[in-house]
Amino acid sequence: ACRVAVPTNTSDELDRLIDLAHARLLGRNNPIDRVSPIDRNSDEHLPPPRALFFDLDDTLADFTSARHAALRTVAEQIAAAVPGVSAQEIVAERRARGAALAQAADLEPRRRQVWADVLRAVGAEGRFEPAELTALHDRLTQKRLALFPDAAPT
Fold this sequence. Notes:
By secondary structure, the chain is mainly α. It has 5 helices and no strands. The protein has helices at 11-25, 63-81, 87-98, 107-121, 130-144.
């Protein structure tokens, strides 16, 4: 985990981070799509966040396990629709093709391309949309994300 000091002259950046946090809480990937917490006409009103934390290295939340479990679930869904392909093969293919993603400059398009390559490799091209698989993988990861026991709030 890391601590971030936010100088007072970076209020625009802090506002952007808060917007992103609100978007994620609402299950949206794009902060532009968010509903403002001060929009009184919205039924998705959220109170302002009390805190933001950034866990970049699996210190507080078990991101790696959540991501792997989500990948297995997505792979099982693909395998159920593609005769002769196992979820294990799909997981192996996705991991092999996605190994260099951390170094990609433009991550989102690259993630969709990796899923397109996986679908092609397992004979499932055209059966699933890579963008939908990317979004599903993210949603499932978020659902499975949990704090490590020793990081639980006291």
